[in-house]
Write a structure and sequence with these properties.
The structure holds 2 protein chains of 2 kinds. Chain A is an alpha/beta fold. Chain A has 23 helices and 17 strands. The chains are: A alpha/beta, B alpha+beta.
Chain lengths: 583, 165
């Protein structure tokens, strides 16, 4: 039997490395077991995950494994007696997280070993490249991509065939193909998972793109915060070179292409394509004015094409299965599937790939299992700092580019952060503005100063110092920044504020007029109180209080001195009886 | 910029192999600075001047790049760099409380280093482990599903290890 330990970043953070070492120490005594790694299956909430394979067939998927389980796992793998690991087996309820998905970009994730090119080859790997190089012209490829309806998965949703065609038509011998793996949206990790779990799929997709536009050099710009992704991709590039799939005369044809990795250095704005180019050239990542577009004048002023990781990850599948197969999925204006990183106050958090056209409710409740602790759903944040919050009245919105834009949010790169009633929407808007104000490159005034002023107003409101007219002022600033900012970062920065005002205006008003935070999150606007009937007098809160603000004797109800209280919330956290309330 | 006249000058020879490999490749300034930071732990002023001279850039350009990207540091950090995630998912799941607990335990806030040089705290945008939020990363190891107590335990464990050594 073969044991595969899910070793994506999430898995390792949950303890997969320790599980792997424990298994490694034990299996040397057995000659009928092999041990390997696999990428991220996307069920992050169940990590660490260990799969047992009998030949090619999955015999058991074990979840929330710890190193203590290693002995039983090895025994089960050796004897085939699965009753030894029955307590670890995935339940039907958890398994349906996967079975409700349609996986194309993630089709190999968590299944193959990302460190071995042979595993990828076995899954028809590099067959699409072979087909393209030996039987298709660049125009044929563009036609297939056009038929598929594939659009840029980085957020903007621009038709991929159009970009490829523009770069192909641009004059000049020297052209570049660039992959944008600078996944900076807080709350998104789709691209990391694809690179860590299926790096050859990305390489193959990029090579097909390079052939189509006529590029001889391809660069992957990866966030420095993703060390494992960089390592796996480096390894995959070396393997592809060795097999003649990269470099000169690929697969014996006239097509030659080199590929390298460029590690980013931490700047959200570098996800914007012209800023990314500046960064690739070794400068501060500040966006350029468009036009000219990168397709005409990009990296080193040469025609360049930039696509997101997920976009490339769909390409080999489309070329093998045909554009029609891809466009058969989805809605009128959005074709194929989309990967989302489902996180926040959700029961089953992880990676979800679904055909366009599913509703938000289906994703959050059917796949994600609903809200943590069965709390009330409040909103879902889509598209990170460029996106917006969608309230519960719009849960039946279908996931496609047009329908999501109509809500004021965007499809974005795929971050989907679920919030329950304990999240303050004004504070959420402040959180995003704090992010964009810090990440603004400073080149254009509307973004540099506008986001700062908005952040000041939001801070004032959450501190309980909001004034009448603040909401209108925010709206006015939003419009000015949208119209005036130079790049996508600035133009979309007001979205979190606009959507929260649109759907949760009453929360803004409560902060400003009544000096209340309805979600009890903004510390300046809440007071802590101990309910005398519920308090058992255990004294724990008094012991934990750093300000000595709580008094009371054993077995008698305690009280909080509001003047001394620093609102740290320790008492609320430690109380086992739910006696500490926020008002 | 800090004055470096009272500081021990950096051993610039450590950087020569990096410069030899990259200085003639256009567009590699960020890579050179990343490697320099790996060597020195941060980017000392004299190293910035040296890189500028060797690569034919102005010191202002090199300084401009070094201050633009969050990865680069202009002062040394503690032995254990705590990167506390402030991403959306971590925010929703209470990263502020983790930050408060770390600050209380170590007496340092974002961007500071403890007096004994053991710990530095840095709040970062998103580590991409959102399903395990709240998350922090110390020396490339990620710790997930944190509670204030768990975070403090991890720090105490690291400190205890240091004391044994």
């Amino acid at each position: 039997m073969r044991i595969a330990v899910g070793s994506g970043s999430c898995g390792i953070a949950a303890g997969a490395g320790k599980v792997y070492s424990a298994l490694e120490n034990l299996i040397s005594d057995y000659n009928n077991i092999t041990l390997g790694v696999t990428g991220c299956i996307g069920m992050c909430y169940l990590e660490p995950i260990v799969d047992l394979y009998n030949g090619e067939a999955l015999a058991a998927r074990l979840v929330r494994v710890s190193e203590k389980d290693a002995e039983n796992i090895v025994q089960a793998a050796s004897t085939g007696d699965m009753s030894l690991v029955e307590n670890l087996m995935i339940t039907e309820n958890d398994n349906c997280f996967l079975t409700q998905q349609t996986r194309i970009a993630l089709r190999h994730c968590g299944i193959i070993d990302p460190t071995r090119i042979d595993d990828y080859m076995k899954e028809d790997g590099y067959k699409a490249l072979q087909k393209v190089l030996t039987t298709m012209t660049p125009d044929d490829v563009i036609q297939v991509i056009k038929t598929s309806g594939l659009a840029g998965r980085g957020g903007a949703g621009f038709p991929t065939w159009f970009k490829w065609n523009a770069a192909k038509e641009s004059k000049g011998e020297e052209k570049y193909l660039i992959c944008n793996a600078d996944e900076g949206d807080p709350g998104a990790f789709m691209d990391r998972a694809v690179i860590e779990s299926d790096p050859h799929n990305l390489i193959e997709g990029m090579l097909i793109g390079a052939y189509t536009i006529g590029a001889k050099e391809a660069v992957v710009y990866v966030r420095a915060e993703y060390p494992l992704a960089i390592k796996r991709l480096e390894n995959a590039i070396a393997q592809a070179k060795e097999k003649g799939l990269l470099g000169k005369n690929i697969l014996g044809t006239d097509f030659s292409c080199e590929m390298r990795i460029k590690a980013g250095a931490g700047a959200f704005v570098c996800g914007e394509e012209t800023a990314l180019i500046e960064s690739l050239e070794g400068s501060r990542g500040m966006p350029r004015l468009k036009p000219p577009f990168p397709a005409q004048c990009g990296y080193w002023q040469k025609p360049s094409n930039i696509n997101n990781v997920e976009t490339f990850a769909n390409v080999p599948w489309i070329l093998l299965n045909g554009g029609e197969a891809f466009s058969a999925m989805g809605t009128e204006n959005s074709k194929g599937t989309k990967v989302f990183a489902l996180t926040g106050k959700i029961k089953k958090g992880g990676l979800v790939e679904i055909p366009m056209g599913m509703t938000l409710r289906e994703v959050i409740y059917n796949i994600g299992g609903g809200i943590k602790n069965d709390a009330q759903f409040k909103a879902v944040q889509m598209g990170g700092p460029s996106g917006g919050c969608i309230p519960k009245e719009l849960l039946d919105t279908v996931i496609d580019y047009k329908a999501l834009s109509a809500t004021g949010a965007i499809m974005g790169s795929g971050g989907m952060v679920v919030m329950d009633e304990s999240t303050c929407m004004v504070n959420m808007a402040k959180f995003f503005l704090d992010f964009t104000a810090k990440e603004s490159c400073g080149k254009c005034v509307p973004c540099r100063i506008g986001t700062k002023r908005m952040l000041e107003i939001l801070t004032r409101i959450t501190d309980g110092e909001g004034k009448e007219g603040d909401i209108e002022l925010l709206e006015e600033l939003c419009e000015a920044i949208k119209d005036g900012a130079l790049c996508g970062l600035g133009q979309t920065a007001p979205n979190p504020v606009l959507t929260t005002i649109r759907y949760f205006r009453n929360e803004y008003e409560a902060h400003i007029n009544e000096k209340k935070c309805p979600a009890h999150e903004c510390t300046n606007l809440i007071t802590y109180e101990i309910d005398a009937d519920t308090c058992r007098g255990c004294t724990l809160c008094a012991k934990k209080c750093p300000a000595n603000a709580i008094t009371g004797t054993l077995k008698n109800p305690h009280t909080i001195d509001g003047d001394k209280c620093i609102k740290c919330g320790q008492c609320h956290t430690v109380c086992k009886f739910g006696a500490v309330r926020t008002i | 910029m800090n004055c470096c006249c009272n500081k021990q000058p950096s051993d610039l020879s450590l950087l020569s192999s990096v410069l030899n490999e990259y200085k003639d490749t256009k567009g590699s300034l960020i890579t050179i600075l990343q490697k320099a930071q790996d060597i020195y732990g941060y980017l000392p002023t004299d190293v910035i001047y040296h890189v500028a001279e060797e690569t034919g850039n102005t010191p202002a350009k090199v300084m401009g790049v070094a201050t633009f990207y969050t990865q680069f540091r202009l002062s040394p950090v503690g032995k254990h760099l705590i990167m506390l995630c402030q991403g959306t998912a971590c925010h929703v799941n209470g990263s502020k409380r983790i930050q408060a607990a770390i600050t209380e335990e170590l007496g340092i806030t974002d961007g500071e280093t403890t007096e004994d040089g053991l710990f530095s705290l840095k709040c970062v945008a998103c580590l991409g482990c959102c399903s395990l939020s709240p998350v922090m990363m110390i020396n490339e190891e990620t710790y997930g599903s944190l509670t204030p107590e768990k975070a403090v335990d991890i720090l105490r464990e690291l400190r205890a290890k240091e004391e044994v050594e």
